Amino acid sequence: MTEQLDAGLVARRIAESDQVGEPRNPAEGREVGRARRRREDARLITGRTRWTDNIQFPGMLHVAFLRSPMAHARLTRVDVSAALAMPGVVAAFSGRDFDGEQGSLPCAWPVSEDVVIPDHPPMAVDRVRYVGEAVACVVATDRYKAADALEAIEADYEPLEAVLDMTEALADGAPAVHEAGNQAFTWKFSGGDAGAAFRDAPVVIDRTYVQQRLIPTAMEPRAVVAAPEGEGFTLYSATQIPHILRVMLALTTGIPEHLLRVVAPDVGGGFGSKLQVTAEEVLGLLLARRLGRPVKWTESRSEGNLTVHHGRDQIQRISLAAERDGRIRGVRVDLLADMGAYLMLVTPGVPLLGAFMYNGIYKMDAYDFTCTGVFTTKMPTDAYRGAGRPEATFAIERAVDELAAELDLDPVEVRRRNWISREEFPYTTVAGLTYDSGDYEAATERALALLGYDKLRAEQADRRERRDPVQLGIGVSTYTEMCGLAPSRVLGSLSYGAGGWEHATVRLLPTGKVEVVTGTSPHGQGHETSWSQIAADALGVPFEDVSVLHGDTAVSPRGMDTYGSRSLVVGGVAVLAACEKVKEKAKRLAAHLLEAADDDIEFADGVFRVRGTGLGGAGRTVQELALAAFAAHDLPDGFEPRLDADATFDPENFSFPHGTHLCAVEVDTETGTVAIRSYVAVDDVGRVVNPLIVEGQVHGGIAQGIGQALFEEAVYDPEGNLLTTTMADYLIPSAADLPDFVTDRTETPATSNPLGVKGVGEAGTIASTPAVVNAVVDALRPYGVHDVPMPCTPERVWRVLARSGASADRAGAVRRDENDGGAQ
Amino acid sequence: MIPAPFDYVRPSSLDEACRILGAADPAEGDVKALAGGQSLLPLLRLRLAYPSVLVDLGRLEELRGVQDRGDHVFIGALTTHDEVLRSPVIREHAPLVALATATVADPAVRHRGTFGGSLAHADPAGDLPAVALALDSVLVTASGAGGREIPAAGFFTGYLETALEPGEVLAGVKVPKLGDGWGFHYEKFHRTAQAWAVVGVAAAVRLEAGTIAQARIGLTNMGPAPVRARTVETALRGVTPPAAGAGADGGRDPVRDACAWADEGTAPPADLHAKPDYRRHLARVLTHRAVRAALS
Amino acid sequence: MPRVTVTVDGVAYEEEVEPRLLLVHFLRDRLGRTGTPVGCDTGNCGSCTVMLDGRSAKSCSVLAVQADGSDVVTVEGLASGGELHPMQRAFHEEHALQCGYCTPGMIMAAIDLLRDDPDPSEEAVRQGLKGNLCRCTGYCTIVRAVRRGARAMSGEPPGETAGETAGETAGETAGETAGEPVGEGVAAP
């Protein structure tokens, strides 16, 4: 006899165990600020999950895609007839079979006048431009038969030259990825007079950094289920953006928006990679329409490494002009950004999200930014955790360290001489953004103390003195980011295709329970918990009495979804705003029932009372008012019988979390191995709704940033084949590859929203990559090293050391050719 | 991804397994033996292998277990890595096997993956072939013709290739007991904790009156098959290791000098994780580390 | 087609299977036990980890026919009588999951780890979980959870742990490890 899981009992037991944590400041409410354990966990720790691949429908068919093995070729013939004869195969199609119907995958961010947005058919019709591009599909009765049938499809290719290197791609005579050439766009931006700043500058630092191509690697591979339902269709997808997806799919496929429902069930991580409108989503819908049956597609990891959009892949030339005392005059940035083969949803906008951040937290007179987007025959790039801002932060934080080294100053001291001081907020930067609040001094002082900075510097000096083969390096990263995407007007001015508002609906149910409907679409961020905390405080109801609905356009019809550290800053604030509106209505009803004027009603602890009557006075609880509204027996004239409200929040400014991350590494100069010895992060994300969740976001972000610094790189061979198709080749860190992180916070509330929150999803990733690489370079400075390209693998470190003339061999084994004594 | 179809047989005895494997007609497809499947299943799923028949040896209890056989330890081919690690016989008489096995993949893989499977698969990045080689192990096979004893030096013939003939099954491995005075170490260099070895060094060293009397060094991933660092072994003989910490100030360390021959006669691969010159360098540094650790 | 008999979370199943059917697809597609997800195709990620005859195994790297006659426990079979397994509870209490996709495998691997080491050090936990990848948490809270779960399973009170500390001292920010310099004595991984 099996033990059956009593889901309700488990949930109750979990709830009982969750009475943890006092509110940080009772005056602010009982819930916000409290380390609430997550209500999402119950289903996730017991396996009662709703991953898209779990969904089964009667008669459901399985889709598999044949993918191009060529980076660049004319597709001359696709013959699916042999596949059709395979057992269990219901249908098989080439791109041509959907010509005229499949449309073009959308790019919602035409960044410039000159931008080239090439046609991007979900299945290639006559040309392929990257390895992994879909060229045909089969639909079969199960996933095994679909996989078998792929092998029976015949496709012929006439190879064209692969285009892999951005500089070569822009050269005259380069093979063209698209008819219009290989330049996707140019985009320029400047503030101040960079010419003047650089003219006669006493110190100029000029560096080129490569942001290697990354594979986002959410743990849940993508999956799509498309099902005909009634007149229309429901699309289930492992997506971060059900709302945007619905609009874009309607525009792409011609299926009317009102007949299309999009559901994001449990989604296993995204990190930007599920902020996309994919070929598989479009074709899933078209197949369901053509066949009249539900279809499912689930990618394998190796398929995903090829075809989930990649991140980063930029070459950054950064120049920094400074005075001899270390004060920065200006910064120039010339960026090449690899678009890959096509422009996907926000591909060209990603580098622009960094364009306003290359000045970092520093004051300067001039800033000049140029970005050129380049087409290559690789998987398109698009948003990956931080999207543009990690790249910018890396470049400025690396360059500031180089400035410190050039001037023989402590890297913290150089930063102090340049950063915006706490008295100067709000501060309008050279890039035109107004940083509303912050305290870089406080975060830095705290981080230095936690790391034991001075003691480590002393140890470093000692190791250098001793020529210890294991050298110590300390890396500093003081970052800020623009997040909480975003003010709709600003997005409009940047040619983005949509706004940046967020929506919430709050409903008081007849029994006094509360439904919060949010337009955000969490996939690990814990919105069900945090939004419940916000609503519980605002309405004075118990946390347990709130439920949060999301991720289904039939349930939550309006929203802008989850990315860009925006959910709390925009969506959480929308929840608060909706609660306030509900309270206003409730107050009117209470006034009516208590026979008082609206203005004489005050609200505290979930009870509306006549002002001045004190806690003992007559009042109506939120729950009583909910029932009264439902019954509608005695409502004010014109009062609709419901206590609910919609609210949309569109921030007037971005939010600007900041912080100081410090990393100490030990570099084994014999092997090149980098080991992180300690990592300290002090972040200022404004007010905190749930410290547990904030800490978790910081931890995970740091780990991903370390992944870029030390482990991860998508590698293409000279023919354009991706070599890192599996998790055995694309290495993400395990528990054994990372240290414990020490985290702490400082707090300067954001002034741009009533919660004072700033967002935390991307902070760790933005901060940690430069902290780690600065530490590696710092360790190797005595060897004359000024840079180690990412990822700083042992082999790369070893080669840099070897090239620097300080042969690693000298510190390690004596080479044979140097070993004049020979072996004995 | 999903394996292509194959037939499956699960023989109930070693004889039956040999019969089935021996009767297979190569013209009708590839008949492969399946042990723990921890290397084979990923290859099947990626469709890098298309066997027509899998012969599952997993239930052949006669191929399982570790025995103390006087002058050697016999490790049944189907003994899992986990069982190897739990074996007191191995701990006592073949500690180098235990040291290397502890670095194989991760615990879940070690519960399924087998000692014999690792050797028969002969992945150049696998940790155990170099150990078998360093210890002069003898691989015992079974077949319709009766079976053979193949010294490790003749067993690993190339990239994923062994001396096993069609129809021949690896039954177990004789690992000689080395006796007193030996020290052991397996030095594995990999980019993440669960990754395959970029380079590995299996070292066994015997001291006699403070001087190295004998050394055996096996190298992982320094060629298409594991190799012995014979030049180092020769060079170490008669060397008196300096006290720990000596030589750090630039003084000559004869152990280090001897280990600088580690890449002699190797043909390291170039792949995503390292180029040959770096692997050669690593072999020299890691061999020194392995020998030092074995000495301590 | 071969016929297999497998007990999954206490229920005996007898099914005909294609030889190539992976155990994880047998669980998910044939038996509807979808609590165990698939995260990769090379046995690296560990999301699909289950207990196979009492020891952890990656169910994507086992054929269903290989599991014939075996006993399988998945994350769905851990809770009993409405009580969570202590390790499940510890993952919840330490916020050791975000998206939750790696969680079933991580919990199974953690339980397996404790069979040999009922009170593992931080380093032992990190090494023991190296075959299970998580992209959300950075592993800090997972390590805490496994150690908390270990204490709970050995009958000790949960004691002071970071999650609780963060909660109880939230007024002073989530500085569970804050307060002392860490440059000293923090072991490299």
UniProtKB/TrEMBL annotation, chain A:
Keyword Methyltransferase: no
Positions of the UniProt region annotated as Disordered: 15-35
Domain of life: Bacteria
Residues spanning the signal sequence: none
UniProt keyword annotations, A-Z: Molybdenum, Oxidoreductase
Keyword Oxidoreductase: yes
InterPro entries tied to this protein: Ald_Oxase/Xan_DH_a/b, Ald_Oxase/Xan_DH_a/b_sf, Ald_Oxase/xanthine_DH-like, AldOxase/xan_DH_MoCoBD1, AldOxase/xan_DH_MoCoBD2, AldOxase/xan_DH_Mopterin-bd_sf
Comp. bias regions, Basic and acidic residues: 25-35
A GO molecular function held by the record: oxidoreductase activity
Protein name: Carbon-monoxide dehydrogenase large subunit
Organism field: Planomonospora parontospora
UniProtKB/TrEMBL annotation, chain B:
SMART domains (alphabetical): CO_deh_flav_C
Gene3D superfamilies (alphabetical): 3.30.465.10, CO dehydrogenase flavoprotein, C-terminal domain, Uridine Diphospho-n-acetylenolpyruvylglucosamine Reductase, domain 2
GO MF terms held by the record: FAD binding; oxidoreductase activity
Stretches assigned to the FAD-binding PCMH-type domain: 1-180
Keyword Glycosyltransferase: no
InterPro entries per the UniProt record, alphabetical: CO_DH_flav_C, CO_DH_flav_C_dom_sf, Diverse_Substr_Oxidored, FAD-bd_PCMH, FAD-bd_PCMH-like_sf, FAD-bd_PCMH_sub1, FAD-bd_PCMH_sub2, Mopterin_DH_FAD-bd
Entry annotated with the keyword Membrane: no
One Pfam family linked to the record: CO_deh_flav_C
Superkingdom to which the source organism belongs: Bacteria
Key words, A-Z: FAD, Flavoprotein, Oxidoreductase
Protein name: Carbon-monoxide dehydrogenase medium subunit
Organism this protein belongs to: Planomonospora parontospora
From TrEMBL, chain C:
SUPFAM superfamilies: 2Fe-2S ferredoxin-like, CO dehydrogenase ISP C-domain like
Domain annotation 2Fe-2S ferredoxin-type: ranges: 2-78
Any one GO molecular-function label of the UniProt entry: oxidoreductase activity
Highest rank taxon of the organism: Bacteria
Region (Disordered): 150-189
Record-linked InterPro entries: 2Fe-2S-bd (IPR002888), 2Fe-2S-bd_dom_sf (IPR036884), 2Fe-2S_ferredoxin-like_sf (IPR036010), 2Fe-2S_ferredoxin-type (IPR001041), 2Fe2S_fd_BS (IPR006058), Beta-grasp_dom_sf (IPR012675), Diverse_Oxidoreductases (IPR051452)
Pathway recorded for this protein: Alkaloid degradation; nicotine degradation
Biased segments, Low complexity type: 155-189
Keyword terms, alphabetized: 2Fe-2S, Iron, Iron-sulfur, Metal-binding, Oxidoreductase
Keyword Oxidoreductase annotated: yes
One Pfam family named in its UniProt record: Fer2
Acyltransferase found in the keyword field: no
Name assigned to this protein: Carbon-monoxide dehydrogenase small subunit
Organism encoding this protein: Planomonospora parontospora
Organism lineage: Bacteria, Bacillati, Actinomycetota, Actinomycetes, Streptosporangiales
